[in-house]
Amino acid sequence: MASYQILLAEDYPxxxxxxxTILQMMGCEVLLANNGEEAVFLFQTYxxxxxxxxxxxxxxxxxxxxxxxxxxxxxxxxxxPIIALTANAVEGDRERCLDAGMTDYLTKPIGRAALEGIxxxxxxxxxxxxxxxxR
Length: 135
Fold this sequence. Notes:
The protein has five helices and five strands. With 135 residues, the protein is of the alpha/beta class. The chain has a single domain (5-134), classed as Response regulator (Rossmann fold). The chain has a five-stranded parallel sheet with strand order 2-1-3-4-5, with helices on both faces. Strand 4, helix 4 (93-99) and strand 5 (104-107) form a beta-alpha-beta unit.
């Protein structure tokens, strides 16, 4: 996988380490947000260089659904893949995430194959859209 800059919004240190390590093993640069408010701030700061956001749903200060809605209001936020990360796999969670503007959904615990597959899919689509926009 090519080198991508990924914003990881996750409040639980063990998940930060696990997902961050997987992303680094994939050759990605990782920006870390401990809550939704930090995620929005980092998005606003790095929006022109970010390739995707992995967004935990339940975080302190501002949850992932609220953060996603704020990010989607931006010109750059309308296009970036935002993938929900959640330990809850109950009926209706996926729909709530998609309704908030998230692109896709992964349940925890997150394995390398699942994370790599979903990022490859969405980043390939993003690269294709970007290439078409340059024509």
